[in-house]
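Subject: Interface between my chains keeps coming out wrong

I've been trying for a while to get a sensible model of this assembly. When I model each chain on its own everything looks fine, but I need the whole thing in one frame so I can look at the contacts. Pasting all components below, labels as-is. Any help appreciated, I'm running out of ideas.
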Amino acid sequence: MQLTQEYREKLDGALRRTGQRATRQREHIFSVLLGKRDHPTADEVYARARAEMPSISLATVYNCLEALSASGLVKQVNFEREPTRYCANLTAHAHFYCKESGEIQDVELSEQIIDLLKSCLPAGHTAHRIDIAFDGKCGECDD
Amino acid sequence: MQLTQEYREKLDGALRRTGQRATRQREHIFSVLLGKRDHPTADEVYARARAEMPSISLATVYNCLEALSASGLVKQVNFEREPTRYCANLTAHAHFYCKESGEIQDVELSEQIIDLLKSCLPAGHTAHRIDIAFDGKCGECDD
DNA sequence: CTAGGTGCAAAAGGTTTGCGGTTAA
DNA sequence: TTAACCGCAAACCTTTTGCACCTAG
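Reply #2:
Try treating it as a single job with all components included. I did that and got this:
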């Protein structure tokens, strides 16, 4: 998978803006996340990345995922005690985790709901980030 | 800290209902969580529990916290990659994590908002649990 | 040129597991 | 009586770190 010109520029800009360098590895990891948006763990990203870049190390995968998160192009998704997953969907959304299939789906949220949630905060509190995670059964797995 | 009769009965019932035994250790861990509701980690619970029960082991603390969670009397709270925290507040609420002070506060939520969130799910999906975590700065830590 | 990034291997840190002995029901 | 639980220590697994080499800017 190659990064399109558009995404390469987006990435380079985002990295530069956050004082980080654009490297082959970071571009490749970004392309892996864009290529299959199924919320892979670092280990899964590592496996996919090695398919086209066999010399990349797991530590570098973690470093790249961290750099991409810091640049704002990638979000980390955490479920309970499970390994962190990574997601290149930047719209406001929650995650639904189906305990039956193990699958994770994006759930689109309106800005209204986000604002409504923020309005529940005590005065003076400011939220930089809101994580919303549903646990349950998805349509296919339901009885 | 001793468990009041009311809480002891609540605990015994909840454990029995989920096919688990009431043990001295589980009662003690429950009393620790009720005694100081500041969302301690397993390690902090361990330290507090040992004050009155020096022979308890960390593995047992984990076992008890797991048993209490399974019984429904305790909730696990996860923030990013940090250690799991435990909480005996059973009302519908979210958590606010202040990155400055490290403090975690409960944020009460109305049933309406919970219902509104559930209504965002695709048809057929059922959520058994919704985790909502805010990250930011609380009033005291704000600039 | 040089600060930042990479690859490797080892360490860290939270959580789980295996096992012999103990206990609630 | 006996399945479940406890305490201890070792194992596990994800993530981080230290260090020598490399590379983007």
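Reply #3:
Confirming on my end. Residues 21-23, 41-43, 58-59, 62, 83-84 of chain A lie near DNA strand D (CB under 10 Å from a C1').
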